[in-house]
């Protein structure tokens, strides 16, 4: 037995993915990475340590963690050509388009890592380079959008602090690391790190199953995550809360709209395909939002107040209760990013940075399982055999 499911052949033949990376129980609201509850990791671990746990299947020794961190920091700079590629995007380009393009372009800058049947050392290098460079690419996509120069990584800083410095630092003055913001970012990154076979992770596994390289598979995963029903929801939530604020804060009106089958509007950040209970990540993020905003002196942030009122209104409404619709990981995360000064267009990029270790772990597991190429089947409901009708006879 592993977890809750007996791995009998019948189950194995359902075509479901067999994985040992993440355990999720949607009814109980349980989420564990390699068996460790996310509550403990969010409290006690670091993002690089959690990334190591997901990718290599166990917590690192102190020496292994030091070596991993050194590896990641050593590869944090990007090729100058990649910098120029990012520069060539038009002003206002969505950073998810830039991120996916730049990650895919890594297969051009490291062709030795783009071939099939890589050596274990080459696989390792792909993994480290991707984790190291995604924050530099992301920060540069933001800097490019505001016309600021790229700040090169500072290898004396930790992963999250380095990212915040590249995002908000400027060449003309020293950047002061805010430990509270670094801690909040670490918690958010850990909580986003994996989530078993969600849309973007399934995309990474499917693309990787054709033995396309890791950069191509993750580039595809980034694009799947961009969708507003998936990772793009965190940006939609903030825009929804701002609309409610502009509309005078009438949350009841928006709950009514979300219930109207004729109205395409949905409460963004609410509901989940698997969780039919409170998303355990949302519980921690909501608590972190209170802590971070208080530390920043923004405890009266109107958007947090609106979010809490919206949650209360929806959760006392039978439409949401009957459908077991609760806040998900995206409902409160944007409020923290907003308080940190991160623009809404970068919210899904933040999700991608957090999710990268999970994508890599699942891709690596798929290779180790020697998985066949993915080939989903269909139920055909189209026309029976029909003869061709020449154009003259078609009227
Ligand atoms: C993520 O899979 C993962 O693990 C994803 C993720 C991860 O970590 O990778 O957890 C990250 O993607 C979180 C979800 C972010 N998306 C949103 O917050 C967008 C808003 N949510 C919905 O679009 C929806 O809840 C989904 C897409 C998340 C889940 O949709 P499902 O499981 O396909 O549910 P459904 O669309 O079949 O809805 C069931 C019913 C429907 O009503 P009826 O047809 O029964 O009358 O619930 C309603 C839906 O209309 N419903 C909502 C709603 N979500 C579902 N109604 C109003 N507001 C909502 N948010």
UniProtKB/TrEMBL annotation:
Active site per UniProt: 272, 330
InterPro entries: Citrate_synth-like_lrg_a-sub, Citrate_synth-like_sm_a-sub, Citrate_synthase, Citrate_synthase_AS, Citrate_synthase_bac-typ, Citrate_synthase_sf, Citrate_synthase_typ-I
Pfam families linked: Citrate_synt
SUPFAM superfamilies: Citrate synthase
Record Gene3D superfamilies: 2.20.28.60, Citrate Synthase, domain 1 (1.10.580.10), Cytochrome P450-Terp, domain 2 (1.10.230.10)
Assigned keywords, A-Z: Transferase, Tricarboxylic acid cycle
Family annotation (CDD domains): EcCS_like
GO cellular component: cytoplasm
Pathway: Carbohydrate metabolism; tricarboxylic acid cycle; isocitrate from oxaloacetate: step 1/2
Domain of life: Bacteria
The reaction(s) this protein catalyses: oxaloacetate + acetyl-CoA + H2O = citrate + CoA + H(+)
One GO MF term attached to the UniProt entry: citrate synthase activity
Record-level GO BP terms: tricarboxylic acid cycle
Family per record: Belongs to the citrate synthase family.
PANTHER family on file: CITRATE SYNTHASE
Protein name: Citrate synthase
């Amino acid at each position: 037995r592993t977890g809750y499911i007996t791995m009998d052949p019948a189950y194995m033949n359902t075509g479901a993915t067999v994985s040992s990376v993440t355990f999720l129980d949607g009814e109980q609201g349980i989420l564990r990475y390699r068996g460790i509850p996310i509550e403990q990791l969010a409290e006690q671990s670091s993002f690089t340590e959690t990334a190591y746990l997901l990718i290599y299947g166990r917590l690192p020794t102190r020496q292994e963690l030091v070596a991993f961190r050194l590896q990641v920091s050593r590869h944090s700079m990007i090729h100058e050509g990649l910098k120029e590629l990012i520069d060539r995007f038009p002003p206002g380009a969505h950073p998810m388009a830039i991120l996916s393009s730049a990650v895919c372009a890594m297969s051009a800058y490291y062709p030795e890592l783009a071939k099939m049947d890589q050596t274990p050392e080459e696989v390792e290098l792909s993994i480290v380079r991707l984790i190291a460079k995604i924050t530099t690419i992301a920060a540069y996509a933001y800097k490019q959008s505001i016309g600021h120069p790229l700040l090169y990584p500072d290898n004396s800083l930790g992963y999250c602090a380095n990212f915040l410095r590249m995002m908000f630092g400027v060449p003309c003055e020293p950047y002061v690391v805010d430990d509270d913001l670094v801690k909040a970012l670490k918690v958010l990154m850990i909580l986003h790190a994996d989530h078993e076979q969600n849309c973007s992770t399934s995309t990474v596994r499917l693309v990787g199953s054709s033995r396309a390289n890791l950069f191509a598979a993750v580039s595809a995963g980034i694009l799947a995550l961009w969708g507003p029903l998936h990772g793009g929801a965190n940006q939609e939530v903030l825009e929804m809360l701002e609309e409610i604020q502009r509309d005078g804060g009438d949350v009841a009106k928006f709950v009514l709209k979300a219930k109207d089958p004729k109205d395409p509007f949905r409460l963004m950040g609410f509901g989940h395909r698997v969780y039919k209970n409170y998303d355990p990540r949302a519980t921690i993020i909501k608590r972190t939002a209170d802590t971070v905003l208080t530390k920043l002196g923004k405890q009266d942030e109107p958007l947090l107040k609106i979010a809490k009122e919206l949650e209360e209104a929806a959760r006392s409404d039978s439409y949401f209760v009957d459908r077991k619709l609760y806040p998900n990981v995206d409902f409160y995360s944007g409020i923290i990013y907003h308080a940190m000064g991160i623009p809404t267009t970068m919210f899904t990029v933040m999700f991608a940075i957090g999710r990268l270790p999970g994508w890599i772990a699942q891709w690596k597991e798929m290779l180790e399982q020697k998985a066949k190429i993915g080939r989903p089947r269909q139920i055909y409901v189209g026309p029976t055999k029909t003869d061709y009708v020449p154009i003259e006879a078609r009227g």
